[in-house]
Structures are given as structure tokens and as C-alpha cells.
Amino acid sequence: MADETHWGTWQQLIAQDEVDALEVMGMAAMYQRYFEEVQRHAARVARAQGRSWQDIAAVVGTTKQTAWKKWRPPSETVPAARFAEIPVEVLAQGILRPFEPLVQQVVSSSCGPEDAGRPELVDAARGALDDAIASYGTSGGKAPFAVYASWQIRRAVTKRRNELRLR
Fold first, then answer.
1. Crossing angle for the helix pair 53-60 and 21-48, nearest 10 degrees?
2. Where are the chain's structural domains?
3. Residue 27 in contact with residue 10, Cβ under 8 Å?
């Protein structure tokens, strides 16, 4: 009910004949911080649901680059030196799920939904993502994790696809 109290306070404040401009600014800043946190959380949920940065950006009227910069997961911004210190199990919990659409996209670009080799390609892609998590800290961190992981996944899927064709 604290939110209702704050909203009531806001309504009373702006209804006054003589409003203290600094008080209005302070309350507006409080609401702005609150709504920024709501957006940050909603962006994380949207990504976990497989929504693209383009989809998120379109809803708020910005570019996908701006949306990514503003709401990207912390795991994509950890410097390489500190990234290696994070236990793989902890890291995987936060990274694997948002990257599942990338795994599926790369596999789909290599085979159709009914292709008999698809499960093996998905396994190869997920394994490559695990490997990317484990090796990113030692890679020098010259590219953002998303780019590094994408490269690893594409390479593994291509290699596995070629192996399947040789059978």
C-alpha cells in the first residue's frame, strides 16, 4: 500500500496552489527511478521469453543498440579478468536461458524443423555455449560475450552439420 500512499502524496502535491518546485522534482525523480527499474526487470523477462532486443526497443521507441546498452544483463558487461572468477554454474544460470533463441536460430539456419540431425545440432550448439562460458575469461574479452558465444555456437553447429553429412 506504500505505492498508493506515494501516489496520493503526488496528487496532493501537484494540486496545491503554491507548489515547491524542488519537492516536485524530488518526487518525479523517485518515480523515474522506480519506472526505470520496472523497465529493466521487464527487459530481462522479455529476453528470457525469447524476445529480441529489436522487439524491446520498438515497444519503448528506441533503437535496439540503446535498449541493449540500457538493459543488457550484467553478464555481458563483466570484464574478462573478473568473468573467469565467476563459477561456471552460477554464470550458466543467468546466461544459458537468454541464449536459447540464438541456439535455435543458428540450428534453424542449418536445417529444417523436421531434419533428423536437428537434435544433434542443438546438442552441439548448447555444448558450444557451455564451452564459451567456460573459456570467455581466457579469450581476452575483446568481443562482448554475446558475440563470442555466437561465434562459438555457429562454429560448432557447422562442424557437427558437416560431420553428419559425411555419414
1. 150
2. 2-70, 73-166
3. yes
